[in-house]
Amino acid sequence: MLTLGVDLAAADKRTAMATIEWLSDRAVVRDLVLDVSDACIVKASHDVDKTGLDCPLGWPGPFVALMTAHQSGHVTVAESEGAQWRRRMAYRLTDEVVREKTGIVPLSVAADRIAHTALRCAGLLAMLAADGQDVDRCGSGKIVEVYPAAALNCWGLTHRGYKGRGQQAQHADLVTALCAAAPWLELGAFEALCRRSHDAFDSVVAALSARAAAMGKATRPNEEQRVIARTEGWIALPTCPPSGLIDMAEA
Q: Which InterPro entries does this chain map to (predicted)?
């Protein structure tokens, strides 16, 4: 099995992509690149079994309805529920599920800078679909939405404080911790890049999360949630420890 992990940014710069090959007793990082274009992502995704995209695959349904209504007139909001109403506009169902399960509040695709990345992702999803890939925003097709920080949290690893200037030591420690938790993971020639770039590291975690989803070892929406997740997207959280990603029976 091959899985692809993409740490998507608003532009090619800072976008990272990792390809992992899964063998019977180990997982090998076969490729790890930075500054990746949409065309490169589509091509790489075509050749793997599952692709994990670290980016919201859609917007909150109530937010979309609000924008449509506001375009043609004015909207009315009861003063007593202003803050709660804004939260419903800002966060998707899957964001609330992640918050409930991990305590992590995902960035709001409706009210944060990640919306720039989501705009790129919307075009990328169209390209993937045009390539014949099954783009089901619930994650049951070729593409699945992943969230590296939440995956690290599920595995009991540090998920905050390893990004940005002056965080090289914390980032290096986290790479070491992941390798200890997953001794079967072979970074090989890409270890230095993984330690140097948190974007590269996140793409590796995205590829690991894609593996969990491919094995059925990640959260899935129930039938009621699927109705919403089909348009908003669904974050697949690993439900197994890192050791559960290795299937000793797989050849």
A: DUF429
